[in-house]
Amino acid sequence: MSTVLHRLDQWANETPDAPAQRYKSQGEWKTLTARDYRDRVYHLALFLESKGFDASQIGAILSYNCPQWVHADLAALLVGGKSAGLYPNSTAKDIQYILGHTEATLLSVQNKEYFQKISGANGEHSVPDTVRWILVFDGDTSISPKAISYEQALAEGRALAQKPGAKTYADYLAKVDPKEGAFLIYTSGTTGNPKGAMLSHDNLAFTSDVVVKYWSLPFARGSLFSFLPLCHIAEKLQCVGVGISQRYTVNFCSKFENVSVELPEVQPTLLLCVPRLWEKMMEGVMAKVRGGKGAKKKLAEWALSVGARVAEAKYAGRAASPLDLVQLKLADKLVLRKVRAALGLGKAEMLASGAAALAPHIATWFRALGLEILEDFGQTESTGVICMTEPGVESAGTVGKPVPGLEFKLADDGEILTRGRHVFVGYYKDEAATQATLEEGWLHTGDLGEWNERGQLKIRGRKKEILKTSGGKMIAPLPIEERLKAAEIISQVCMVGDGRKYLSALITLTEVKLAELKDRGALNGGDTITSPEVVNQVKAHIDALNAELAGFEQIKKFTVIGREFSVQDGEMTPTLKMKRNVIEQRFRSLIDQMYSAD
């Protein structure tokens, strides 16, 4: 089965009533079957083609995750065209850029609120003239004369399917070229305008099969929770690639703010998160534990310590003590099982982390709960897969090993290179960038790696983020930052010092710590936190870390920021990676102050 479109058809034919997609409407979870799923894609394709959408055109989608998002995505591909998703929290500038770059003729939006994102806060922008049709998922067509409701489009498509001689789903499949660019995924990018990476049907089908085989995912027995942006390769691979290939029920979160409520309702068997969200879960639980009182607090601390000891023994390859094994059963019954269920992980059989390296202390903490987070390292241009960790194998702080079936090597400077069926077609309308990234089929990832003693790959950071001091020393900031973030009060760390005598850092505190300071009236409302208590706490963590680092790697000065870096302020990408250049520009005066005595 060469594409997910083929696999969706086979699923609908073999088990038409299998639950394929679930979404929440008016407080209740509704279900679409495999046949519903396939038919909606087919009927939308008929509708689009009847309006003049063809293989030369592109559809763009601006919406939060929902079944309609995927239907519109796949319908454009079934016709032979391309589809490009936009991040739900995209700025008007990025939306305008992508709509202009793709010259999209079809624009799908969730509702009026999303449509208004296109115009910007002051209405300074308008929908490009290239857009001929606006498909509105919630049905409000008052937003534009070009608008048509999703339900109306489906109805027209259904009517067309009943006409004599109507094109069938099989007719469409016969013309699909697996090797052609299909999915346009715009990299969120930490610098400049986003680039449109073209992924083929074969890219997605191949990498889905790689993930399934490497992690031994069960067939037709699983459920997913979709809340990460569908326009990102990680969620595309999970929700569309693996979801269709393995016939999993995909449960769509109604909006990002509802994750903490709806995830426990769904209790999926497989969950994919980015590292920052795993970290938030951990911080939330530990804040409740620390805020507990008396016997209840001691019970929680005891249960986590037992779980940690048993997990440590397991991953060290030795047997846990008989006493700890007996205690674990009680700890699990009284505490750990309840924590897992409260997080929405009570039925989890597989947890995965992607988009960035997971800090070791986070992986270790979840093991104490009886949960293992596996890592998938890749990027958009590699269809999300290069290296993966193995179940039951100690790999904290690494991204595992290169996946069999893919070519892999480290360049002389440590840059990660890969080649194979997982490597993208190229950047849309950017041959120069494509040639700079692909050399003889080898994808130059821009990520730096090194092997550990177990033959596993450790990510040192991005090649372009290496800091070079005025003394000529080269330092990869990421590993140092991750170690400092293990401190319970520290949320984010952005090291600076390129071209300077020494390294410094901008540091943010966790939401819990910020809330505590606010309640005590210890926040002065400024850009920085200068409370001696907080500064000394942070300094103690930095001093402890510095003692383990070479002199040129040490953080000599730091400033504690009065808030976390955010997506809304442009300091983080939509996948929660720091935009270092933006942060350095925004806090330039504070950075300069740390070097003012030089």
Short description:
With 598 residues, the chain is α/β, with parallel strands linked by helices. It is built from 20 helices and 27 strands.
Sequence-ordered SSE layout with sheet pairings:
Elements: H1 4-14, E1 19-25, E2 28-33, H2 34-51, E3 58-62, H3 67-79, E4 82-86, H4 92-102, E5 106-109, H5 112-119, E6 133-136, E7 147-149, H6 150-161, H7 169-174, E8 181-186, E9 196-200, H8 201-214, E10 223-226, H9 233-245, E11 249-252, H10 259-266, E12 270-273, H11 275-291, H12 294-316, H13 322-343, E13 350-353, H14 360-368, E14 373-377, E15 387-388, E16 401-402, E17 407-410, E18 415-419, E19 426-427, H15 431-437, E20 438-439, E21 442-451, E22 457-462, E23 467-468, E24 474-475, H16 477-484, E25 490-496, E26 503-509, H17 511-519, H18 532-546, E27 555-560, H19 580-586, H20 588-594
Parallel strand pairs: 1-11, 3-4, 3-5, 4-8, 5-6, 6-7, 10-11, 12-13, 13-14, 26-27
Antiparallel strand pairs: 1-2, 8-9, 9-19, 14-15, 15-16, 17-18, 18-21, 20-21, 21-22, 23-24, 25-26
Helix pairs in contact: 1-2, 1-9, 2-3, 2-6, 8-9, 12-13, 12-14
What would you report as the Rg, rounded to the nearest angstrom? 25 Å
Strand order of the largest sheet: 7-6-5-3-4-8-9-19
Classification by helices and strands: alpha/beta
Low-pLDDT stretches are none
